[in-house]
Amino acid sequence: MVSDVYDFWLFDLDGTLIDAEWEYTRRTFDRVGDRLGRAFSDREAEILWHGLGGARNAQLHEWGIDPAEFWPAFHAVEDPAARAEATYLHPDAAFVADLDVPVGLVTHCQQFLADPVLDHLDIRDWFDTIVCCTDDTGWKPDPGPVSHAMSDLGVDGADDGVLAGDGANDVGAAWNAGLDGIHIERHDPERRGQCVLADYRIRSFEELLGT
């Protein structure tokens, strides 16, 4: 089984292990739109929430939206408690709890949102380190946050590791840090509009378990 191959595992969070109910996402973008004076369609909200178009800042620029205005507005309207209540765990992610190697989380989800979600779903103890990306650590596909997680886990380049995520930025961060990359596709590839290359391309983590 692929799950037995690696000395350590790293995971993205949103879209990989968990997701939020659509009603919460739609409500969030309505509030962001009110602040920016610019409405977001369902499709635009889906693209930005899930990163379907690749790098979100590049997508914002393409739509004529300044990321320096968007992200403060986005984080200002997010309600940590409401988001935690609206978040669910993908059933196939349960195998993470049984991994008998160091396990880390490397997520763009900010700590004030990630903490309530992890506690609400009772999965914090799945991870030996949790790295929430910042300007200081860098943002995937930059290898900085991945290297930070590896340092926390006490592993180095001599260990065989892997990072699993639902976007091209996750695989890019894995490769840039010298790890294998797993892309889990939670959406119809036609809705993503691009093919994400990876060492493993799967639709469910069950494919790695031989089930």
TrEMBL record:
Organism encoding this protein: Haloprofundus marisrubri
Keyword Transcription on entry: no
InterPro entries: HAD-like_hydrolase_sf (IPR050155), HAD-like_sf (IPR036412), HAD_sf (IPR023214)
GO molecular function terms attached to this record: kinase activity; phosphoglycolate phosphatase activity
The protein's name in its UniProt record: 3-phosphoglycerate kinase
PANTHER family referenced in this protein's UniProt entry, alphabetically: PHOSPHOGLYCOLATE PHOSPHATASE
Domain of life per record: Archaea
Keywords: Kinase, Transferase
Listed GO biological process terms: DNA repair
Leader sequence segment: none
Gene3D superfamilies for the chain: HAD superfamily/HAD-like
